[in-house]
Amino acid sequence: MARRTAAQCPCGAAYDSKGICSACGKKRVRSGAYCGWHSFWCVIGTLFLIGCIATNLTIRSYLKSEKISKAMSETNLAAVSIGSETVAEMIRQEYVSDDAVLVEDVEAAIQGMGIEDFVVKKIKAYAQLLRGESNDVVQITTDEIVGLVEKSQGDVYDKCMLVIEEKDKEELRDTLEEPLHVVNKLMTVLYGSPAMRALARWRLSIPRVIVDIVLLLLLLWRWMQVRLNAGKKRDGAFKGMGMTILIPSAVTLLSAVILVLSGAFTPDGTESLSALKNAIASPYWGLGAVGVICGVVLMFIAAMLRRSEEQKVDALLNKNTKPVAPTKMESVEVPSVVEKPAPIRKAPEETVPCVYCCRQLAVNARFCIYCGKPQSAPATETTPEPETMPKPETEAAAEESIAPQE
């Protein structure tokens, strides 16, 4: 089930119209359906660009070496196997009623038509058009096909005892008129004007290959942005493009191997299109190998990026949970029984009586905490007069002894 797009940022603020958080500035995470849909189109774009590059390099290889035309000139179409029979055997069985006519006679009659030379001529003319050596549009008309039949009419009669009549030629014209008209019309549209010829030649140039490679890199960057917008890791883009390139390249390389090896199992004495198969498959050996290497390199980069991101996460976690180095502690003897310390008693302070109310106050008290009067004021008003006390006998006797002398 696709993940819903959040309406608010995890910090609690709302997103603006561009999907940017108004508080923290982070971009809104897109849904899983968004990532899957855009990744699908990235895969389609990758396949298209890889196909354009492969087609460009393949045709350039054919035009440079002329392998197709050379292999075609060495091919015997009469000995080409169709199923379990050759072309000559099929014609001998279906059209020849005379038992004296052999398969070799039919092969000789087909070779006399010059079909191989006709095909090579058209291939060379098409190659000259693409290389810019000629501006003539390649056309195949019914008159040329009927001319091949008329060229071998005598050999067909002499070797196969077959008579080619005018009605046979008209029937051949009617059969080939429509398909040849479509092919000739398409060739006129593609190469009939200078602009279209220039465009066709540019499609096979090296700058076109460079443009396709640049577009492929931009597509990879876009794929990474799609994954980042969906909250996924960017290494998935490298892995996806690597798999998209690796699988078709491996299939192409395997097909080229099978096509070449199939010629080794041709029955003895029977010619086939083995030379033409090898010429067609020759560019795909290198293209398949290069594609496999590129796919493996992209997947290796994806693994390196994934490993790098995991190391960053591990380093961040280790930094946040870094253990504190233990400090050296001195051994301290702990008594087996911990005694409760005796409470500290405060020594009693010296006190003096208030000069007014006679209540006990601190020695340095300036005011009485009871009556509120200052302790430095004189106490004459409230001090009672001393009462007359009887003098002791000793003092009275001393006074009497002193009195006569006066």
Q: What does this entry look like structurally?
A:
The protein has helices at 32-65, 67-73, 87-95, 103-111, 115-131, 142-151, 153-160, 166-191, 194-203, 206-229, 235-262, 274-320, 393-402; strands spanning 81-82, 85-86, 351-353, 360-362. The chain has 406 residues and is mainly α. The strands form two sheets. A two-stranded antiparallel sheet has the order 1-2. Strands 3-4 form a two-stranded antiparallel ribbon. Strand 1 and strand 2 (85-86) form a beta hairpin. Helix 1 runs antiparallel to helix 10 (206-229), helix 1 packs antiparallel against helix 12 (274-320) and helix 4 (103-111) runs antiparallel to helix 7 (153-160). The termini are far apart.
